[in-house]
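In the current project phase, we have settled on a layout for protein records. A sample record is reproduced below.
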Amino acid sequence: METKRSRRIRHSRQDWQGFVSEFLTSGQDCKSFCRDKGLNPSRLIRWQGVFRNGISPAISQMQPVGFLDLGTLPAPEPQPRTGILELKLDLGGGVVLTLTRN
């Protein structure tokens, strides 16, 4: 028995722009359009967002941002404590973490 492996085809930015334009005018839903064209629906949606927002798909070209000091906030005025504060977190597996402040 022979099995055929499908190979992923790499499309250019221009190809995707064409697919997105064709999809928008086709009147089809994303799943049907992609099935007809042999495309991955999540890829089409991603590229649709790229062209709509004008962002570059080359994330590797993004530059890291250094530390940005936003200054300090003034200290809040102390509030009188009233009552008990209790926080319970159910961590699953029967484990419950309880934090209490008087």
